Amino acid sequence: MKKKVAIITNAKEIRSSMKEQVEFIFEELIETEIYSIEDKSIKKLNRANLYLISSSAYEFLDSDFLKKDNIVIADLTLTKEKLRFLKSFPKGTKAIFFNVSFKMCIEAISMMYHLGVNNIEFIPAYPKMKKFPDENIIITPAETQLLPKEVEGREIIDIGHRIIDANTIIEIALKLEFEHILYYKKIREYLDTVATNDYSLSKILEKATQAESQFSLLMKTTKIAILGVDKDNFLCSCNERAEKILNKRSGTLLGNNAEELLPYIPFKETKESREEIKTKLIKIGDEYINISIIPIIKAEYYMGAFAIFQKFEEEEKKQNELRRQLLNKGHKAKYTFDDIVGESQPMLKLKALAKKMAKIDSDILITGESGTGKELFAHAIHNYSNRREFPFIAVNCAAIPETLLESELFGYEEGAFTGAKKGGKIGFFEFAHKGTLFLDELEGMSPALQVKLLRVIQEKEIMRIGGDKVINVDVRIITTTNEELRKLVKEGKFRKDLYYRMCSFPLIVPPLRERKDDLYLLIEKFMRNSGGEFRFSFKAKKALELYNWEGNIRELKNYIEFFSFTGDKIIEFEEMPFAIKEYYESTADKIEIKKREEKENYYEEIFGKGYEESLFILEKIDECCNRGKSSGRQSLVEICKKEGMVLTEQEIRGILKKLEELGLIDVFKGRKGNKISTEGEKLLSKLKSSMDKI
Prior knowledge:
Elements: E1 3-9, H1 12-26, E2 30-36, E3 50-54, H2 63-66, E4 71-74, E5 76-77, H3 80-87, E6 93-98, H4 102-114, E7 120-125, E8 137-140, E9 155-158, E10 163-164, H5 166-175, H6 185-193, H7 200-206, H8 212-221, E11 225-230, E12 235-238, H9 240-246, H10 250-253, H11 258-261, H12 267-273, E13 277-284, E14 287-298, E15 301-311, H13 314-328, H14 345-360, E16 364-367, H15 374-384, E17 392-396, H16 402-410, H17 428-431, E18 436-440, H18 447-459, E19 461-463, E20 470-472, E21 476-481, H19 485-490, H20 496-502, E22 506-508, H21 519-530, E23 535-536, H22 538-546, H23 552-566, E24 570-571, H24 578-606, H25 611-627, H26 633-642, H27 649-661, E25 665-667, E26 674-676, H28 678-693
Parallel strand pairs: 1-2, 1-3, 3-4, 6-7, 6-8, 8-9, 16-21, 16-22, 17-18, 18-21, 23-24
Antiparallel strand pairs: 5-10, 11-12, 11-15, 13-14, 14-15, 19-20, 25-26
């Protein structure tokens, strides 16, 4: 007799895909009905042997309904082929990931990162969002029909619907008591096409049954020491790693009663309580062993159990291995102090201070306007510190919803909330142990999380959501903020105690307008990175130097990348962005008028004494230029002698220096001599006019 499977999704677009996959695998064994929250068909939900629920739909379902034993939360993944395709993109590629909702975007992006797609920086996008991202590449799981018209002309990559992962398939089979199909060639071929992450094995182990062939396969392939018993607690399985720890051959173990042969392993306790023993420290010989025992319960009957154990000293190794995996997946600092461009005095002082702070190993608060490079400093501090060999985990506090942020930071235990993964989840604080946790945009953290953060900073310990165990963590926290936290504290929007705790070691990154000496260094770097070869006209340079750069370095980078894209060799003022041109035109005239007035007053002050001598030298330089003759210092000495102007070479040198400082002449080395400037010509004309009137 066929068993009924009800498939429940949030969006109606994915339910048909899930239906096809389930029917392909289980064929004549099941009949399916599909429902969605979106079209309200869920209101007509019929009774079923199993309810397969998408992760985006469970939050809309009644909590009592979700307590049923015949519920499976579907985890979706990619095929190995699609995974290889995504991993083929160049590192640093930016792409929009488009799905039917923000939550499904985040879920899919998180899944891809867990699968090792760390070469692509995904930007979530979904229908009816206020501002669609600008990136040219759009990746979507068969949701192209929902894309807005504005994306026409961009590169759209359809990776097809995500598929049900191996763990979910196994769980469905076990819930419906179809264990036998797991041995079918068709199932094995399907599971072989499915991409899996590092946690797949443990999830399969959680669903282990008495199915001998499946269990034997796991026993041979797993790197975990594992020992299995049947319903009467007779030893039925033992792998090589277990043999080494127990110092016993499997031939002397299998078929014997575990309570009699291995009384220190609490199989009896597990059988009586029907509950998992998560972690227990026992002694085998002279060694301490961490052991966990998972019972196999089927239709309320105890079918056996298996024990997973490892040497006590291997616990830290295990954690370090997880952290190394994080490093391999991109959870490491990308930049050093060499990547921070800046030779201006403010930047040299800031980098020197940051290097000192890096060695102190204290928590650091980095403040500054948006786009100033605060994140670069966070990365560089980690790479310069003694924690550089351990993970660097970056979290944007403003971009992640509060409920999700808490679980990401602190982790959670199994059953902590609806939709919590079986086995729980390790949070970023634990993953960052011995390393650095970078909390970007700290001002976006809720007051409730601020309290928890303060506790971590003070006590160096955390507790997972739904847990009762205190976990010690050795984590350096680096935070950044675009806002003036002092102001937020006064407004009651940020905790005062946390503020004063974090600002013990503050770093203030100056805006670009306060370090304009670095402007052309930055331009050169961005030009080199973008492959551009161009220069600015004189007026365009003046506009760049005058501009206030409210968007700071990020704004400059975007402009340089744009100029590189145009392919122009010379960037004229007319080609500059509107914001730069508008600022220049609104302020340049005022500045020039002020400078002109200052210059004129200065000229009158200088030419009060020595008026005739200065005018004479300026006139002779002008005459020499007009005749194409040299007007060097020696030539001017000879001219003075001939025309009866008594001036020594030293006096002439002093006059020339003054005229150059005032911008009235240009001084050249060699035979070229001196040349009157445009300003000098204007002043000469003005002075001559004044003389004529006397």
